[in-house]
Write a structure and sequence with these properties.
Radius of gyration: 20 Å
CATH topology of the largest domain: Aspartate Aminotransferase, domain 2
Pfam family, one: Aminotran_1_2
Keywords: Aminotransferase, Pyridoxal phosphate, Transferase
Mean pLDDT: 97
Strand content: 15-25%
Helix content: 40-55%
Strand order of the largest sheet: 2-8-7-6-5-3-4
CATH superfamily of the largest domain: Type I PLP-dependent aspartate aminotransferase-like (Major domain)
Low-confidence stretches: none
Protein name: Aminotransferase
InterPro entries: Aminotransferase_I/II_large, Kynurenine-oxoglutarate_AT, PyrdxlP-dep_Trfase, PyrdxlP-dep_Trfase_major, PyrdxlP-dep_Trfase_small
Largest sheet: 7 strands, mixed
Organism: Pseudonocardia sulfidoxydans NBRC 16205
Number of helices: 14
Shape: globular
Bound molecules: 4'-deoxy-4'-aminopyridoxal-5'-phosphate, glutamine
Length: 382
């Protein structure tokens, strides 16, 4: 293994999911729903498979899906997107990889908020660039504008933004996004905006940074069918932005996977046009689950940081005597039959690792009866 990838030989999601399987624990670690997406979506994909839609689709994605992504951005955010500037990818993961690998190289710096999604440091390292982190701190996981400003240098090429934010559940408001936008503009930096949880916010709107004045021309926006339609195993994602940046991303993507999911892409295209009731039901249903799990975690004795978006809740284990979230995450399945992931693995700066040390993340994208059972098990912890 090349040296720059040696810190990334395993992922916490694979490890904790294996542990949950081995111990029979309820897996609230890796974030995946335990019910599949809309019936019509599943039926469409099945019909495509038996109906002969099984050979390579066009490299950039099937036209219907690229058009549907553009229509979705117009419908929800008023964003004008040319379907020619939409690239379909193997999940948001490949979109992130292609963007970083096509635009960043040795000597460049990439800024990400810490804690971060785990592919950001891995792809930054693979590109040869250096990661600069800016902390998000409990309780509200906002950033300090001065710390963000200080992270920029003449070498900064890209900032990786993720709102709604995994793992903290933070949702950046317009004021915070404007600070990012102003700094990105001042330093002529590309913003890669990972918006996979765009339809999962509670009480606050999701604002794509590309909608801020002047930002569409420097922003690559990423999302995924896995999250919106509860089909994480399909791995259909997309990225859109200014033509030159998308063309660069496409150059890398075409040699990573060439293309993806022929029978799935047209099904996702149709699903993107589902009525408003479908989209509002995503957050409505998750809100109840958030209440159920956060009440249970509070009752169990954790300090709970209520998320404003995503399907994750971060808690602090110290009130229960758990100083080390990493140890707690590995012990939790045997302690009470529930699995969660430690947050410190999503940090790499010494201060970030220390700040995240007592925190663990639980996923609540599960059936109510599963969450109720998990809450019952967690109640025995104190
Ligand atoms: N970004 C974030 C913030 C995520 O949470 C995830 C999924 N866990 C991804 C990207 C990857 O999405 P996909 O499964 O579509 O590759
Ligand atoms: N995005 C999901 C999470 O944060 C899982 C992703 C993965 O397994 N790589 O839990």
């Amino acid at each position: 293994l090349v040296e720059r990838m040696t810190p990334f030989t395993s992922t916490i999601f694979a490890e904790i999911t294996q542990l949950a399987v081995d111990t029979g624990a309820i897996n609230l670690g890796q974030g995946f729903p335990d019910t599949d997406g809309p019936e019509s979506l599943l039926a469409d994909a099945a019909a495509n498979i038996t109906g002969g839609v099984n050979q390579y689709p066009p490299g950039p994605g099937v036209p219907a899906l690229r058009e549907a992504v553009a229509a979705h951005q117009q419908r929800f955010y008023g964003l004008e997107v040319d379907p020619a500037d939409v690239l379909v990818t193997v999940g948001a993961t490949e979109a992130i990889a292609s963007a970083v690998l096509s635009l960043c190289t040795t000597g460049d710096e990439v800024i990400a908020f810490e804690p971060y999604y785990d592919s950001y440091p891995a792809m930054t390292a693979l590109s040869g660039a250096t990661l600069r982190t800016v902390p998000l701190r409990a309780p509200d996981f906002a950033f300090d504008p001065d710390e963000l400003r200080a992270a920029f240098s003449a070498r900064t090429r890209m900032i990786l933004l993720n709102s709604p934010h995994n793992p903290t559940g933070a949702v950046f408001d317009r004021e915070q996004l404007q600070i990012v936008a102003d700094l990105a503009t001042e330093h002529d930096v590309v913003v890669v905006s990972d918006e996979v949880y765009e339809h999962m916010t509670f009480d606050v709107p999701h604002i794509p940074i590309a909608t801020l004045p002047g930002m569409a021309e420097r922003t690559l926006t990423i999302s995924s069918a896995g999250k919106t339609f509860s089909v994480t195993g399909w791995k259909i994602g997309w990225i859109h932005g200014p033509s030159e940046l998308v063309a660069a991303t496409r150059a890398v993507k075409q040699f990573l996977s060439y293309t993806a999911g022929a029978p799935l892409q047209p099904a996702v295209a149709t699903a993107l046009g589902l009525p408003d009731e479908f989209y509002t039901s995503i957050a409505t249903s998750l809100r109840g689950k958030r209440e159920l799990l956060s009440a249970g975690l509070k009752a169990a004795g954790f300090t709970v940081y209520q998320p404003r978006g995503t399907y994750f809740i971060v808690v602090d284990g110290r009130p229960l005597g758990f100083e080390d979230g990493y140890k707690l995450a590995y012990d939790l399945p045997s302690l009470c039959g529930v699995a969660a992931v430690p947050v410190s693995v999503f940090a790499s700066s010494p201060e970030g690792v220390e700040a995240m040390r007592p925190l663990v993340r639980f996923a609540f994208c599960k059936r109510d009866e599963v969450l109720t059972e998990a809450v019952g098990r967690l109640a025995g912890l104190g």
